[in-house]
Design brief:
5-stranded mixed sheet, disordered N terminus, 2 domains, 11 strands, Glutaredoxin, globular, SH3 type barrels, 278 residues
Length: 278
């Protein structure tokens, strides 16, 4: 319990230091076709050290914070990121890029060799650096609302940290199709240890009570992001704001296991298949 209380505190520090301020991302994936990603395998080194080739599959060692080791120019033409800039690690991609949230400096997919990710991951593996909680849980765990009960209250950190994977759902709770979507998603709750997390779209600070009541009325009792924070977390996770309901299934460390738009029966069937395979 003490370990996860410390994790919740660190989550707040990460949010204050680098997370959730608007910025441009170098890569957007929300409009891509459905994808299910398998971790590749790579031969370990003789001493088990983490390398650039093995860091993706060794996600349990991913650090919470990553720093730039070289200057890098975003393809979008935004201001260059300078060596020593630090940001919250969102995830390592299968193609070798590192998604980092630099707060006011934006969210970018950086080549691994421009960061100290491998060094920090190997320090976690060797016990030099302490990893207090899985990265996804650490990043969002202190910014969610407890769905149970009539009163709005923060979700306890430990209540989030028990799932095998997390189904991030991005949708407008005011949309006409939302009740049907919520009903379908409710049927996935706890399947294979998956926990849904709702990121409400097109909402603001004044919509907190509305979102709480909406989910309660629909009996979709899932933790959800505070409305005033949801847009920035959505940009961090997806790279852009989705035009349609969107699902992203992630590991506790934030590795993407499956991602697709939601709405049609076929899309939901694909999502159900992905959840069944976790």
């Amino acid at each position: 319990m003490q370990r996860y209380l410390r994790s919740a505190c660190l989550s707040s520090l990460i949010y204050v230091a680098v997370g959730c301020s608007a910025g441009q991302d170098a890569h957007s994936t929300h409009d891509a076709p459905a994808t299910q990603v398998e971790a590749p395998s790579a031969p370990p080194t003789a001493d088990g050290a983490i390398t650039q080739a093995t860091v993706y599959e060794n996600e349990r060692y991913w650090p919470a914070i990553v720093a730039m080791t070289k200057d890098w120019m975003p393809p979008s033409g935004a201001k260059p990121l300078k060596a020593q800039y630090r940001g919250a690690l969102v995830r390592v991609e299968a193609d070798g890029r590192v998604r980092i949230d630099f707060g006011r400096h934006g969210r970018h997919d950086i080549p691994i060799d421009h960061t100290d990710l491998v060094v920090r991951a190997d320090e976690v593996r060797a016990g030099i650096e302490t990893k207090l909680a899985p990265n996804f849980v650490l990043r969002v765990g202190n910014s969610l609302v407890d769905p149970s009960g009539a009163q709005v209250r923060p979700l306890k950190f430990d209540d989030l940290a028990r799932a095998r994977s997390y189904l991030c759902v991005f949708a407008d709770p005011r949309a006409e199709e939302f009740p049907s979507l919520a009903q379908q998603l409710a049927s996935l709750e706890s399947v294979n240890g998956v926990r849904a997390v709702f990121f409400p779209q097109s909402v603001g600070r004044d919509d907190l009570e509305f979102v709480h009541e909406r989910l309660g009325t629909l009996t979709w009792h899932v933790p959800y992001m505070y409305p005033q924070l949801s847009e920035n977390y959505t940009l961090s996770l997806l790279g852009d704001l989705p035009e349609r309901p969107h699902a992203q299934l992630v590991s506790p460390e934030g590795r993407v296991l499956y991602e697709a738009e939601l709405g049609t029966a076929a899309e939901f069937a694909e999502l159900r298949h992905a959840v069944d395979r976790v």
